[in-house]
Write a structure and sequence with these properties.
RapZ-like, RNase adapter RapZ, alpha/beta, 4-stranded parallel sheet, Rossmann fold, RapZ_C, 2 domains, 10 helices, GTP binding, globular
Length: about 290
């Protein structure tokens, strides 16, 4: 059976991800206590269902510690299991909860000895949730949704659903340093040292995917050299990640605005590695 476990911080898009997988033909279950996962897999498998997606959150804190062992056992039984961990910056989470006017799930639970009359703040709930989930964050692929719209996240999950059974998937992501470094990046490369097309008024409204910008950057020796160096670095260390049984490797490339240089570099990197690896390309700041 193909199993996708979705976990992470509340407000980071778990419901969006689950809905995408449901549309893709997965049998979906939300807020399942991890201790019940083996029974669910057995029941669903007996009905002939080949794809299962389960969302797990921090309210099942007592059984969360058993999740890595449960995942290992399911893999030993022959199931193909992938874990997606969605996260976001505290600033983004506060804004989302404020916008939806929903309360945080942990605001309804009491810690041992806590006064029922007391109520934790939203930021306190987020901090506690990060602590509870810290042990399983590296269990799967981390996706930072801080600057991602719901529509962009849907696109990412669709790509993941299509590539989930590949031995290792290379993610190349462009971003803007002025917005912040992606939380899900394994490697971060800063290409701001390359001449900026932004200062050419004719190139300013374009992106790194447009021919005039490409021509401008290809004429810069520093751009060519940096692209070569990044390619060689990733090529050198990629076998080590494969040996470590990693399913995903995210390479983030950043410039000032996430429009010209980083987009160009991510596009070129994706094209280079697409000849030999399973590659996914995304541009965080592009709509």
């Amino acid at each position: 059976m193909h199993i996708v476990l979705i976990t992470g911080i509340s407000g980071s898009g778990k419901s969006v991800a689950l809905n995408v997988l449901e549309d893709a033909g997965y049998y979906c279950v939300d807020n399942l206590p991890p201790a019940l996962l083996p029974q669910l897999v057995k029941a669903v498998s007996s009905e002939g269902t080949g794809k299962l997606a389960v969302a797990v959150d921090a309210r099942s804190s007592e059984s969360l510690t058993e999740l890595p062992l449960t995942v290992a056992r399911l893999k030993e039984e022959g199931h193909q299991v992938k874990v997606l961990f969605l996260t976001s910056s505290t600033h983004s989470l506060v804004a989302r909860f404020s916008e939806t006017r929903r309360s945080h799930p942990l605001s309804h639970t009491l810690r041992p000895g806590e006064n029922p009359a007391s109520r934790r703040t939203l930021i306190e709930c987020i901090a506690e949730e990060r602590e509870r989930l810290g042990a399983i964050e590296q269990l799967g692929h981390v996706i930072d949704t801080s600057e991602a719209s719901a529509n962009k996240l849907r696109g990412w999950i669709k790509e993941l659903a299509e590539v989930q059974h590949a031995p290792l998937t290379l993610f190349f992501e462009s971003f803007a340093f002025k917005v912040g470094v992606p939380l899900d990046a394994d490697f971060v490369f800063d290409v701001r040292a390359i001449p900026n097309p932004y200062y050419d008024l004719a190139l300013r409204p374009l992106t790194g995917k447009d021919a005039p910008v490409i021509a401008f950057l290809e004429a810069q020796p520093s751009a060519t050299e940096m692209l070569h160096d990044i390619c060689k670095f990733v090529e050198k260390w990629l076998p080590s990640f494969k040996t470590d049984n990693r399913s995903y490797l995210t390479v983030a490339v950043g410039c000032t605005g996430g429009q010209h240089r980083s987009v160009y570099m991510a596009e070129r990197l994706a094209a280079y590695f697409n000849e030999s690896e399973r590659v996914v390309l995304r541009h965080r700041e592009q709509s």
